[in-house]
Amino acid sequence: MNCHQDAHCILQMQNLIPTATKSDLAKIAVDPTIIARFNPMVNLESRKSLRSSILTWLRLCVYEDKLTRLISLSKSASTDELLRELHTETVWDTDENPAWLVFEVENMLQIRQVQYTVAKHLIDHPGDVT
Question: Taking Cα atoms as reference points, which of 105, 99, 118 lies closest to residue 66?
Fold first, then answer.
């Protein structure tokens, strides 16, 4: 460890610098500047790498939830419901829409293609509900 790491650890142990929670990681995915609250010494390259890792973790959380739904559906639902879940895939860019990814994780769901299409239309055409 170097002196900055030692100092950072001491400040964390004294609760003067917070330790990131899962909720904080989700916030960082949407706003990477929050990283500075936890360690102001992190350089830009490391911030980008951390955010990329957080987005990967969030994607994996969505897939874990999907597997849980598939297992449940395989035991109790019709084949049509199971196939619908199997065919659901992410059609939007998670890097450009991290808030949507966080929404999926928080609600243990996956945004379906038709839902994306409607949401994208409303975002691109505010007030157009036809």
Answer: 105
Given a cut of 50, the residues of the chain with pLDDT beneath it are none
| AA letter at 34 | I
Q: What pLDDT is stored for residue 2 in this prediction? A: 65
| The residue to which tokens 């055409």 are assigned | 125
Name the DSSP letter for residue 75: H
29, amino acid identity: A
Burial class of 28 by CB neighbour count within 10 A (0 to 12, 13 to 18, 19+): buried
Indicate the pTM of the whole model: 0.85
Per DSSP, the residues of 22-73 read: HHHHHHHHH-GGGHHHH-TT--HHHHHHHHHHHHHHHHHHHHHHHHHHHHHH
